Amino acid sequence: MTGSGCAIVGLGVTEQGVGLGLEGRELRTRAVDLALADAGLPRDAIDGYIRAYVDREDLRYMGLSPNFSVSMMTGGATPVFSIIAAAAMIEAGQAEVVACVYGEAQTAFATTGKQDIGSYGYGYPMLYGLLGAAATHAFHARRHMHLYGTTSEHLGAVAVTQRDYAVGRPGTLGYGKPLTLAEHQASPLITDPFRRYDCTRNTDGGVAVLVTSAERARNLLSDPVFVLGAGTGHNIANWHQGLVYENHDNIAPAKARAFGQAGMGIEDIDMAQLYDPFTISPLMQLEAFGVVAPGQGGPFYAEGGAGPDGAMPTNTGGGQLSAYYSTGFTGVAEAILQLRGAAGAGQLKRAETALVSGHGMNAGVQNTWAHACMILGRNPRAKGATS
């Protein structure tokens, strides 16, 4: 994928919440309907379909007849990766409009008992009792604390910052529910050092985005959001080096590709919408992307650096911690809203470019996460581009 060859032209976000009573395929169908209406496109315009997460799609139920339908799974990196894949398929001449779709009824598992506990395992350490994403990400947090003196209060600053964003955003889990640092500190310990408010919660909901060529995007109903650059990396590389816990992801190669394609530097980014399953995650990513030096993520949050008037507003809709969990599509959707100037009371003063990330899955052992990132912009030309 090159520079600004493709754009997102349709966004569909269904109701998000707990116990919605809708099955996954209905949530995905509704998300696609909303995205088509947003773009002003007919149903048969979708000639490529990518479902985030591995399972067959009921195309008959959805009323779609694309040239291809693909299921994709690389954990929380899947949504960003699906957009990268969609752009590649368009540039390869295999489709003109690709729908990238997520929709799951996650909270239904809690009442039906259908969730397989094995899905919470992360490779062979599961045999020794290591279960759950919280336990594995806790390794990152404890290592960061050991190396840099990061504290639980620093993690709490992440949770409070994101809740402050969500408080004024209707439709989020945190809407109208402010959170103080004292409340964070008083919340129950889940897995050391994570407390309740350091962790995301499962929600039900669907999100769909429509991707097409930049040329076609200019002639559609909605304001296009251009894909300026993208990159991927895998933390298995750091596992082999014995540095897996020091690195939340292998961001260096992903950053180099994304910013290289965009012709930009981190100083050209107006906001970050980062994958945040736990409070340590956006903190470590801001460091890895060069927003702050290693070890300075905690003070950065504590001093308001990730707030709306800070140096890098981050997860401005509340993120997965306080808005809703639609895996990596939470940040994608918020970036699109901000870039379009459609974030309502939460609209940033400057929103021309956005860094978006996804993270998840593993390569057979805990903490070997996949990573995908992209730079989105209102303008098809990157700020730093010379041609």
End-to-end C-alpha gap: 17 Å
CATH architecture: 3-Layer(aba) Sandwich
The helix-and-strand class reads: alpha/beta
As residue ranges, the low-confidence spans are: 383-387
Q: At the third CATH level, what is the topology name? A: Peroxisomal Thiolase, Chain A, domain 1
Number of strands: 11
The named CATH superfamily: Thiolase/Chalcone synthase
Estimated radius of gyration: 19 Å
What is the approximate shape? globular
Tally of alpha and pi helices: 14
CATH class: Alpha Beta
List SSEs in N-to-C order. EHEHEHEHHHHEEEHEHHEHHHHEE
Query: Share of helix among residues?
Result: 25-40%
Q: Any idea how many domains?
A: 1
Q: What's the arrangement of strands in the largest beta sheet?
A: 3-2-4-7-1-8-11-10-9
Quaternary structure classification: single chain
Mean pLDDT: 93
Strand proportion: 15-25%
For the biggest sheet, the summary is: 9 strands, mixed
GO molecular function: acetyl-CoA C-acyltransferase activity
Organism: Mangrovimicrobium sediminis
InterPro entries: Thiolase, Thiolase-like, Thiolase_C_2
Pfam families: Thiolase_C_1
